[in-house]
Design goal:
20% strand, five-stranded antiparallel beta sheet, 23 strands, 525 residues, alpha/beta, binds calcium ion
């Protein structure tokens, strides 16, 4: 994306989760999702471009469907960045909402991917980019052809330029001239906004959603949802009541087609704005952008307390039962490996925080290897091919050149190398995901912060399914201790603890000792 913001259910084989969710528990509540950029994941036919068959051939890496093996990552949901036809490498400007991007494969390839993912206990959601199309979409070409076009009102036109700037960059206009009139495009002129005040556009969006559900996808990641309907300059371009009304209409249509389809929203804003999209009948899951910033900043600076403040704000603000989507970074952001300067201890901490929080955590492909950004400032450098091994083609492609160069570090931060090293970040992610799946409290429990801990410490209780888990992270560079009085239990069972991290009952209080930049996860009983 540009600047910042930028059928009946298929039966799945039992996944690695130890207990199946009951009817009151939606399936997405206890998932660990993995964001995939198909173009950069695995190339099956040697044209240098990742594709659906390549992804299907690598599913066992993500989850082999066998809960007794731990050589797979163990994720239980996949989010595919846009796979519809598009002239761009990233796909966020669609030219045909119905067609699978021919670079990626066919309808049949998608069907097979979904079937194979389901077999392994993974759900599959796809990006749905409704706010705007490509300026090369036939709808826009038709709309722009004449003020009397039958699709004129599918986009937002006016005779003059009212001079609105982008909400995040006020000197960049959101109105663009074409044929003597002006059309609205919040991100850039090549992505004209659809007009969701037009009933035919709303119906088309619902029809397209039903079509993909019919192909077997389990839901959607909805791009840029806060910008769907715009009413004026500045704040009038985000989070309008009309936008919420349309999302509820859209959600109702999706749930009518597939009651268990999930809607995950991208609302790149503060906790209060995000919270509005959890309104009844609206979206199911929302990415927690402020929490991502808090985690990364806190890990960087050794400040656990600031992450606690962000978590408390979420708890205070979100409606009860809302499923949060914590993450560290996504395809629009500098990779976490680069944000944390490749500091192994900080990367391990960030992973431990992410994977012990409530909700449905999202990983971004390559994060589990500590993958870095490329050297350039272009977005492509955030989205480089996945390094399966250290060879020239990285195990990604047999072509002489992949569609884009690899980020630096492939020689050591690649899957083959990390699979052979029990101390690697990859093993860390596997162990954390495994611990999460093995604990009802971690998977679906609530969170309460432990008060009175040192500022370098972030510590919380996760409680659920009759289980209590104490999680403590020391983000600082010096050893830290904490005391937690008034908690039940006398036995601490280690689910995962860094060397030297210890928890023991000392009189009436639990006491933890945490070496610098370490985490511990204990079931207390
Ligand atoms: Ca290919
Ligand atoms: Ca397994
Ligand atoms: Ca819009």
């Amino acid at each position: 994306m540009p600047p910042a913001p930028a059928c009946p259910p298929a039966a799945s084989a039992p996944g690695p989760a130890p207990s199946a969710p009951g009817p009151a528990t939606p399936w997405w509540r206890d998932r660990v999702f993995y964001e995939i950029f198909v173009r950069s994941f695995a190339d099956s036919d040697g044209d240098g471009i990742g594709d659906l068959r390549g992804l299907t051939s690598r599913l066992d890496y993500l989850n082999d469907g066998d809960p007794t093996t731990t050589t797979d990552l163990g994720v239980t949901g996949l989010w595919l960045m846009p796979i519809a036809e598009s002239p761009s490498y990233h796909g966020y400007d669609v030219t045909d909402y119905e067609r699978v991007n021919p670079d990626y494969g066919s309808d049949a390839d998608l069907e097979r991917l979904i079937a194979e993912a389901h077999k392994r206990g993974m759900k599959v959601i796809v990006d749905l980019v409704l706010n705007h199309t490509s300026s090369q979409h036939p709808w826009f070409l038709e709309s722009a052809s004449s003020p009397s076009s039958s699709k004129r009102d599918w986009y937002v036109w006016r005779p003059d330029d009212p001079g609105w700037g982008q909400p995040w960059s006020s000197d960049q206009s959101t109105w663009h001239e074409r044929g003597g009139a002006y059309y609205y495009a919040i991100f850039w002129s090549g992505m004209p906004d659809l007009n969701f005040r037009t009933a035919a556009v709303r119906e088309e969006a619902k029809r397209i959603a039903r079509l993909w559900l019919g192909r077997g996808v389990d839901g959607f990641r909805l791009d840029a949802v806060r910008h769907l309907i715009e009413t004026g300059a500045g704040p009038g371009q985000s989070g309008n009541p009309e936008t919420h009304a349309f999302l509820q209409e859209f959600a109702a249509a999706v749930k009518a087609a597939r009651p268990d389809a999930v809607l995950v929203g991208e609302v790149w804003s503060n906790t209060f704005d995000i919270s509005d999209y959890y309104a009844p009948g609206e979206l199911d899951v929302l990415f927690d952008f402020p929490l991502a910033t808090a985690i990364v900043d806190g890990v960087k600076s050794g400040d656990g307390a600031s992450i606690g403040i962000a978590l408390e704000e979420v708890i205070r603000t979100y409606p009860k039962g809302a499923v949060d989507a914590p993450f560290l970074a996504n395809h629009d952001q500098i990779r976490i490996g680069t944000q944390l300067d490749g500091d192994e201890a900080k990367l391990r901490l960030a992973a431990a925080i992410l994977l012990t929080l409530p909700g449905a955590p999202f990983l971004w492909q390559g994060e589990e290897l500590g993958m870095r950004n490329g050297p350039g400032t272009e977005d492509e450098w955030k989205r480089t091919p996945f390094p399966w091994d250290a060879t020239a083609g990285g195990g990604f492609t047999s072509a002489a050149r992949p569609w884009h160069g690899f980020a630096p570090g492939k020689e050591t931060a690649n899957l083959a190398a990390e699979s052979a090293d029990p101390n690697s970040l990859l093993f860390r992610y596997r162990a954390l995901i495994g611990a999460r799946h093995g604990s009802d409290a971690l998977r679906t429990g609530d969170l309460s912060l432990l008060p009175g801990v040192p500022p370098s410490v972030l510590a919380y209780l996760r409680r659920g399914g009759g289980e209590t888990v104490l999680v403590a992270h020391n983000l600082g560079a010096a050893e830290a201790t904490l005391a937690a009085p008034g908690l039940p239990g006398s036995v601490a069972e280690t689910l995962l603890a860094d060397p030297g991290a210890m928890l023991a009952k000392d009189g009436a209080a639990w006491r933890a000792v945490l070496p610098p930049r370490s985490s511990g996860i204990w079931r207390i009983r």
